[in-house]
TrEMBL record:
InterPro entries associated with the record: BTB/POZ_dom (IPR000210), SKP1/BTB/POZ_sf (IPR011333)
Domain BTB residue range list: 39-151
Pfam families, sorted: BTB
Stretch list, region Disordered: 1-23
Protein name: BTB domain-containing protein
Classification via SUPFAM superfamilies: POZ domain (SSF54695)
């Protein structure tokens, strides 16, 4: 059964280690992947214990430096591992994702190279949530930059993407991307991520369950409201751009068959209107790809120059009108949008 995620701004509790940690350690089972016999710290997470290297953790996280600086209680028994034992309030699988980056085993390296062509949402989410919680700034910056590269503020970069979400993600994961942007305060991710959420139908309300910790990812009430408002505005903007591009007002400057091309454009538009395919002439989401139109237009007797003219008209309208207004449409403020 899914549970709601803990507050996104929750911080790790810094406390002195207690004998209770040692007692719990006896009951927990050793992790099969991250139990190093020469490890210098034991971490408890749920019913799993990891034995890893404190130097790696303290190099990346000042929070671990502080936790390890706290004194052992005088009544604590000697550890069976002769190294510190610390209880973490994180899911074991979430930690494994991060450990595979910081302390890769051979099996993890092989898996990453040959099975995963791109990181999954669960992986990226774990990296960012753990890095934010434990102030692992380098790791946090790396994976926020990964999201910013796809959920970009630059129009040319966005239209160059083949998918609305990164490879390895499903569209529903845009909800999680919005929540990560809210967690970390990176507002430049929000306009495109919220715009993708407007295409989810009823799933936008239901959300999804993360694979690593079974927590439910849902939009806040405020972000749901932004998406409901943005959906209609985006459909209107997209329909306007499509109409301007397909309207048979003129042919391309280099067109040698103007009458034929104009008539074919008119026939194309009439056919689409009569097909009752509203998603075609009134598409959802942030700047739908022109390829969905160019593929069908190729079946009509329209010259290459006119096809290029229509694509240019579409991208120009979307770039100068829709894209520059995307933060306004999605109800967020972003400094330097489109620059």
């Amino acid at each position: 059964m899914s549970t709601t995620s803990p507050p996104p701004d929750s911080e790790p509790r810094k406390r002195a280690r207690t004998s209770h940690d040692e007692d719990e350690c006896v009951d927990a089972h050793e992790d099969k992947e991250f139990w190093f016999d020469d490890g210098t710290i034991v971490l408890l997470a749920g019913q799993v214990k990891f034995r890893v290297y404190r130097g790696v953790l303290t190099e990346h996280s000042p929070v671990f430096v502080e936790m390890l600086s706290l004194p052992q209680p005088s009544e604590a028994p000697a550890s069976q591992y002769s190294c510190p034992v610390i209880r973490l309030h994180d899911n074991p699988e979430t930690l494994r994702h991060v450990f595979r980056l910081l302390m890769p085993r051979k099996i993890a390296m092989i898996t990453s190279s040959f099975v995963y062509s791109a990181p999954t949402f669960d992986m990226v989410s774990a990296y960012i949530r753990i890095a934010h919680k434990y102030q692992m700034d380098a790791l946090l910056h790396q994976w926020l930059e990964y999201l910013q590269k796809h959920f970009t503020h630059r129009f040319a970069d966005w239209v160059s993407h083949k998918r609305m979400v990164p490879e390895g993600f499903a569209p529903i994961h845009a909800i999680g991307v919005v929540n990560l942007a809210r967690l970390t305060g990176v507002s430049s991710i929000l306009p495109t991520a919220l715009a993708v959420c407007t295409t989810l139908g009823s799933n936008i309300v239901e959300g999804f369950t993360r694979g690593d910790d079974d927590c439910l990812e849902q939009l806040s009430t405020d972000d749901l409201g932004r998406c409901f408002q943005a959906k209609g505005l985006l459909i209107q903007a997209n329909a306007n751009a499509v109409a301007l591009a397909l309207a048979p007002r003129t042919a391309g400057d280099e067109c040698s068959t103007r009458a034929v091309c104009l008539e074919q454009m008119r026939i194309f538009c009439e056919c689409q209107r009569s097909s009752y395919d509203t998603s075609y002439l009134y598409p959802e989401g942030p700047v739908p790809s022109w390829k969905r139109y160019s593929r069908r237009l190729s079946d009509y007797n329209i010259c290459r120059h006119c096809l290029e003219m229509m694509e240019g008209e579409y991208l120009d309208t979307q770039g100068t009108r829709t894209w520059m207004r995307l933060p306004e449409i999605t109800g967020v403020q972003v400094d330097g949008w489109g620059l």
